[in-house]
Amino acid sequence: MSYIEVIHETKRYKTGDTVIAANNDVNFTVERGELAVILGASGAGKSTMLNILGGMDTCSEGQVIIDGHDIAQYSAKERVTYRRHDVGFVFQFYNLVPSLTARENVELASQIVQDSADPTETLISVGLGKRLDSFPAQLSGGEQQRVAIARAVAKNPKILLCDEPTGALDYNTGKQVLRILQDMSRVHGATVVIVTHNAAIAPIADRVIHMHDARVQRIEENANPTDIDDIEW
Ligand SMILES: Nc1ncnc2c1ncn2[C@@H]1O[C@H](COP(=O)(O)OP(=O)(O)OP(=O)(O)O)[C@@H](O)[C@H]1O
Ligand SMILES: [Mg+2]
């Protein structure tokens, strides 16, 4: 059985009288320890899918099986436990706690799990060794994004879900972050899912799930992912 199995998953949003299907009969699998990229244009339904995989949101129909458990059937309480222990999540818009420093934001996440990585070391690995005591408002967008990545990675999660993790980063910092995310799968065995609209990132993935208009258009398996040093955007 695959680590992630999404089966006939549909998510509808109701606003007034209109109903939008943000995910429409989505099907895909991701193997344990793989790095998968969900690629698609703005509005394709990528964040919706990632939020459902991370137990932040629930689908309207279908199955979302993670490590043999259908999280679509979970109660709110079971979802909290799943999010807390299994999931590292990098939000598209960071979601840092404004009143905590970079280090405290990472500690907040690492403290709730047992096998966490050292918060300071993790911040150093994303190039923020000199900004440990800065508050989010004192950091640039790209720096805040890296704190968000450190926060997710420091939990040593079984499943690492990243929404546009390089969106606010320059070329070199973006590559540095992708290397950390790839190491999470290659070295630590985490199953990593990256959502992006940037097609240049796709070649580093073991699997690319192309989304278009709320559906999966096609899936590519990549036996020989490209080295991060060899991609360009
Ligand atoms: N809470 C919500 N209420 C109503 N509609 C929503 C909600 N969240 C998302 N949608 C709609 O669902 C569709 C998919 O949104 P989603 O955020 O998943 O797209 P995306 O692929 O992540 O786009 P982007 O690349 O711009 O982040 C969009 O049409 C969006 O307007
Ligand atoms: Mg999005």
TrEMBL record:
SMART domains, per database record: AAA (SM00382)
Q: What family is this?
A: Belongs to the ABC transporter superfamily.
Q: Which UniProt keywords apply?
A: ATP-binding, Hydrolase, Nucleotide-binding, Transport
- State which Enzyme Commission number(s) the record gives: 3.6.3.31
Show the GO MF annotations: ATP binding; ATP hydrolysis activity; transmembrane transporter activity
Start and end residues of each ABC transporter domain:
7-231
Record Pfam families: ABC_tran (PF00005)
Question: In terms of domain of life, where is this protein from?
Answer: Bacteria
InterPro entries on file: AAA+_ATPase, ABC_transporter-like_ATP-bd, ABC_transporter-like_CS, MacB-like_ATP-bd, P-loop_NTPase
Residues forming coiled coils: none
| A GO cellular component entry from the record | membrane protein complex
Classification from the root reads: Bacteria, Bacillati, Actinomycetota, Actinomycetes, Bifidobacteriales
Q: What is this protein called?
A: ABC transporter, ATP-binding protein
